[in-house]
Amino acid sequence: MLQESQVFEKRASQQFCYTNVLIPKWHDIWTRIQIRVNSSKLIRVTQVENEDKLKELEQFSIWNFFSSFLKEKLNDTYVNVGLYSTKTCLKVEIIEKDTKYSVIVIRRFDPKLFLVFLLGLMLFFCGDLLSRSQIFYYSTGMSVGIVASLLIIIFILSKFMPKKSPIYVILVGGWSFSLYLIQLVFKNLQEIWRCYWQYLLSYVLTVGFMSFAVCYKYGPLENERSINLLTWTLQLMGLCFMYSGIQIPHIALAIIIIALCTKNLEYPIQWLYITYRKVYKATEKPVPPRLLTEEEYRIQGEVETRKALEELREFCNSPDCSAWKTVSRIQSPKRFADFVEGSSHLTPNEVSVHEQEYGLGSIIAQDEIYEEASSEEEDSYSRCPAITQNNFLT
Description:
By secondary structure, the chain is of the alpha+beta class. It has 3 domains: about 10-110, Jelly Rolls; about 115-260, no CATH class; about 295-380, no CATH class. The chain is built from 17 helices and 6 strands.
């Protein structure tokens, strides 16, 4: 039975099992458990779920026989163990004699999971910007062309094949073989770059240039619906990356829900604000309107009158106004024409009459009339006691 941080060194084929007894906590969201098998020569490692599966491996079957040829032979293998898996077993098979290997269980923070989570956040929150970016368009097209060139070649060949042809069986096998090659290249990318860097660099430059030419020919997306589809695809990929980058499922789902709410936060806030305004208006007591002062009333009248006159002048100068029809209905066409050209709408006589009635002169006249009326009342009051006294004496 394997234990964490304990190294087991062996020289013969053997079976191992690891039991996970720790319950994952919230701080284990980017923690990965791995069983590392490091050997001096090539070995074959088979991972199963429990001891019963190990016993089945010992029994001969056609499937086990063929699968043994398909399994990779490596001298440094990492077996991933789920945080919630109770038991994981593996079988180490030695291919060559005098092979020494070691087995150790490692629990550590995995920066790859954190980077995958950050990539998901970026795709989800910046998907609308990336879908409209030309740099993202060309870089993604070149990357897809470099990584999946074999798949693209098989797809192009399938277009030239007849519909009823046995070549489709080969094409289906070609798809699977291409995926297997891509996986194999990524696993051994460092070794390939060290030994065959010239060929790898030539391949990247050639296929990258061809992919750029194809992307340049068709150009970036311009249709709004296509851009929306790309945006939604990037956001969906971002959610998948966020979920796969966190080892604890319920925390991953909670973060996804928070991200969705944050992305569309403006809509709930608007709904809450509208609901609050309706409730506040329903419970609020009506406030009596504030009356204008005399000065505010005068200023507002002048401003609104000036504004209405400007609107009338603009309408008269616009093509919508029928000049002949308007002139035929007014008494002073020349005065109307002067007003349209920018002159005042009042004549000097009208201004003087208005000043006399409502201006400073009218106020002085009203004060004089009020003073005369008050003096007459005082005189009449002073005469009233004398008349009353005379009547009393008589």
